[in-house]
Amino acid sequence: MKSVRTSILALVAALAATGVAHAASVEVRVSGVSNAKGQIVVSACDKATFLKTCPYNVKVPAASGAVTAKIANLPPGQWSFLAFHDEDGDGVMKKTALGLPADGVGLSRDPKARFGPPKFEDSAVDVGAGGASVAVSLKY
Predict the structure, then answer these.
(1) Which member of 33, 53, 83, 123 has the greatest number of CB atoms within 10 A?
(2) Class of domain 24-137
(3) How far apart are the first and last CA of the chain?
């Protein structure tokens, strides 16, 4: 009985270590920040969560010009990176009456929105086990 329990614990530990070893760290440089009010929220979304509730989010203090955020433990794969300037610090992206972003906002690979929101494929970045460096430019 003890050997079965020990084997299960060893297996769980090995699987956990394998998952962490394959997780990546992504550095996201956000440029075009208009002022130092509030925070910059940076999110990583996979195709299923794109422009919805993204599973990986970090917040960094805003600084006029540019800031850098680091998203740790991101599984390798295709990810889209979204950033917005949350000037009032409530963590919520403001929208206009037409549903357009009222805060400064940007996506990786700077896709152009034509008659609706951009597609995941237009902003997706391949992230390997070694991580990645991504640029996002805010538009107000």
Answers:
(1) 83
(2) mainly beta
(3) 63
